[in-house]
Structure formats: C-alpha cells, structure tokens
Amino acid sequence: MAGLSRSAPTAPKLTVPGRGATDSQAGLAGRARRVLPGGVNSPVRAMGRVGRDPLFMDRGSGCRITDREGHTYIDWVGSWGPLILGHADPGVVESVRAAAGLGTSFGAATEAEVELAEMVVARMPSVEMIRMTSSGTEAAMSAVRLARAITGRDVVVKFAGAYHGHADGLLAEAGSGMATHGVPSGPGITAAQSAETVVADWNDRESVAAALEGHRVAALIAEPVAANMGVVPPGPGFLDFLRQATRETGAMLVFDEVITGFRVARGGAQELYGVEPDLTVMGKILGGGLPAAAFGGPVAHMERVAPAGDVYQAGTLSGNPLAVAAGIATLGRLDPAAYARLGELTDRLKAGLGDLVEGRPLQLSSAPGLVTLFFSDHPVSNFRDAARCDLEAHARFCRQMLDRGVYLPPSQFEAWFVSLAHDEASIDHTLEAASDSLERVF
Ligand code: KE4
C-alpha cells in the first residue's frame, strides 16, 4: 500500500543460539503491531494486563517453553490446556509427522476420524456420537444451534465469567480474554442476539431458577468447573441442581468441557461429578495441540445434525487428519496411571502454594490438572468475587515469576494448566520462585 512503511525495525538483530538472527522482543512487538491487532492473534496472549509486551515464543519441550530471545521458562499456560502431555511430545510429533506425509487434508471422510470419535464415546459418559469442528467456539455455537432446533426455543442461559468462545450470543459477560481486557460484550453484537442470552451467577441457585423460570430457555450452557474466571469449582450439588432444574423446565443442559474434558477425569467433569448433560462441548486436549474440537451427546440428539438430520453444521477442516492424529496420540496416553500422576502433580503444586497463602490476601482454587491463585482477601465462588481481585498485585506477581523463569497465564481470570510433562523438580522450582516473588508483591 502506498505510504505504508514496510521497512524492518531499526532495533539491532539478536543472534539466538541454534535459531539464527531475530528481532528483540520489543522489535518483534513493534513489527507485530503493524500487522496484527495488538500484535497477537488472540487477546489472551497480549500480556498487557501484566504490564508488558507479548512474549514471542520460539519452541517448547516438555514443560518448558523458550522465547525468541532464548529465555526458557517453566510453562503453566500449556497453550491454554491442550498440552496435557507437554510441548513437542515425541509420540504426538511422530503421529503428526506420519499423518502429514500422507497428506494434510482431504475434505473427505477418513478412518482416523472414526477412531477418534470412538475414543471420545468410550470416555465421555453422556456422549454416543460427536461432530468435530476446528475450534471450541464452533463447537459451542453448534451445540447451541442444535439445542434451539431440538427444543424449538431461542433463549440461552450462560454464567457471568464463563467463556464458551466468541460466537455472538455467547459473549455476554464472558470470562477469559474479555474479562482480562475489560472488553464489553456489546460492539458488533446485535440487540436481538443479546436479548436471547440471559446471564446467571455461578454457584447461585436462585439466579439460575429465575433465569429458567423467567424465559423459554433452549439451553443452559456451563463450564462444569469454571476455569475462565479463574478456577471456580461448582459448589456441593450445584451441577445436580442444574441437571434437575433444566430437566424440569424443558431446557437442555450443555456442559462446555473444552477445558475440563479429558483433564479433570478421563470422562471429564461429567464423570468426576456423576452428572450427565444433554450435550457436551469438547476441545483442547481432543486435538493434542492442533485445531480440533467437537460437540456430542446421545444419538437421538446428534442425529438431528446434517446430513443425518436438518440442523446444518459444517467445516472445511473439521476432523483434519493432522489434528486427529495428534488427538488420538494424546488420548491414547491418558490411562488411569496418567490421571493418577496428574493428580499427584496437582496436589504437590497445591500443597506448596497453600503454604504461601497463609497470612496473605490470597485464595487457592483447584480441580484435577487446574490451579488458580486468586489475589483476593475473600473466597471466590463466582465472577463477581473474582473481579474484585487485586489485579495489580497479580500483575506484579506474574512479572516477578517471569524474571524467575516461570511463565504463568497473564490473567487473573485463567487457570494454571498442569501437564504430565511437569515433575517434582519443575514444581519445586515454581514454588521457590513463587515464595520469592510474593515477598516482593505485598
Ligand atoms: P476456542 O474457540 O478458543 O478453540 O475455544 C473456545 C473455548 C470454549 N470453551 C471454553 C471453556 C474455553 O476455555 C475456550 C477457550 N479458552 C481460552 C482460554 N481460557 C482460549 C485462549 C484464547 O482465547 O486464545
């Protein structure tokens, strides 16, 4: 374009051992901001809320990630959940490499997609059939469309602070990056779409009852363990209450297990808590780090999806061979011993952080494979509580931890993702860094 300077930044190039020359992080941020909004392709990566430029990563191995300047960190982001086996797991990489050699996409049915679907059905108690998509957003919006078709109703109930991807009707008071950056859910969302979304408060039965009784609700969608307001598990019996209340009012119960699926238990939160939804949204671990997600449920519901039924849903790269290969390789490794190990690692991290909480305005919250340290002097049971956290103290903590080689999710409204590539040594390093960091935060 005339006049648009494409000249390379003036900052000196850095030479990174084994990786050649690169711009400095600052130079990369400047280049990126010229061609990407905020310099990133997803807001949660921006790191603005922790007071710094986005980190440009170069490579990962196991529980560690290395940036373009060659700095290595213990990684508790794990690509926001998919990497339960860690970065560049040899088994996953080899499966993807083999699949790539046979062709990256066919736009046709493959046996591997059937195998992955069979693996999901064997794991998720309420799921008899799935349709794959390339993102959790697509899966969640498709599940809502299916629920509206089945019930003949329009209204969707979601929880404040929950995040189900960026489909228009699901952005109302969403968590994750929206909460992080204080982005309103308004711009670009029509009044009609907003009117069809009713927001309830997590762990608040009266709020749920009012939403369900006050509207003809097609679906109530919930993260069965909230993780996009920080980790906030359901209170005792709350999921059972959601199951009963939706059944009594004719609404479908949709569990968004994009984070919890295959993580909190082999069969996700619906196995862990023994509550079966009508539809389930899955993602992240399902693709093992490549773009794959799905929605699923009983055959009676899923047979409404085209071409078996009349609810249209489609995707050029849905069930992509490389993503399916990574998903099969990942799920195949998640046996009972793996979940026992994930629990051990989570418990070790929790115990160590628990010692640091004493006497400080901190709250520790967790579920298997998920941890959040809330910078709050009061317990956190919903998004309103989470939003009252000391975000500046959290930001100082994240910066201090980066200086000590630990990469945390750069938002109070996210989870630390435990992987099977973490170990006692990396956890103990994290705990020592946290102890030192907290001395400088408060
Ligand atoms: P994607 O469209 O990003 O694949 O999935 C959306 C989604 C749906 N449901 C839940 C429970 C989710 O957590 C997500 C996405 N999670 C965020 C992090 N909390 C993804 C990170 C990002 O937005 O870049």
List the helices and strands and how they pair.
Layout: E1 14-16, E2 20-22, H1 25-35, E3 57-61, E4 64-67, E5 72-75, H2 90-101, H3 111-123, E6 129-133, H4 136-151, E7 155-159, H5 176-181, H6 191-195, E8 197-200, H7 205-213, E9 217-222, H8 238-249, E10 252-256, H9 268-273, E11 279-282, E12 293-297, H10 299-302, H11 321-331, H12 336-357, E13 363-367, E14 370-374, H13 383-387, H14 391-403, E15 406-407, E16 416-417, H15 424-441
Parallel strand pairs: 5-15, 7-8, 7-9, 9-10, 10-11
Antiparallel strand pairs: 1-2, 3-4, 4-5, 6-12, 11-12, 13-14, 14-16
Bound molecules: ligand KE4.
List keywords for this structure.
442 residues; alpha/beta; Aspartate Aminotransferase, domain 2; 16 strands; Aspartate Aminotransferase, domain 1; binds ligand KE4; globular
The CATH superfamily of the largest domain is identified as: Type I PLP-dependent aspartate aminotransferase-like (Major domain)
Mean pLDDT: 95
**What's the count of strands?**
16
What oligomerization state is this entry in?
single chain
CATH class of the largest domain: Alpha Beta
By secondary-structure content and strand pairing, the structural class works out as alpha/beta
Overall geometric form = globular
Major β-sheet profile: 7 strands, mixed
First-last Cα distance:
50 Å
Task: Give the DSSP E fraction (strand runs of 2 or more residues).
Answer: 15-25%
Number of domains: 2
Q: Hetero groups bound?
A: ligand KE4
- The percent range for helix content is 25-40%
- CATH level-3 fold name of the largest domain: Aspartate Aminotransferase, domain 2
**Annotated CATH architecture of the largest domain:** 3-Layer(aba) Sandwich
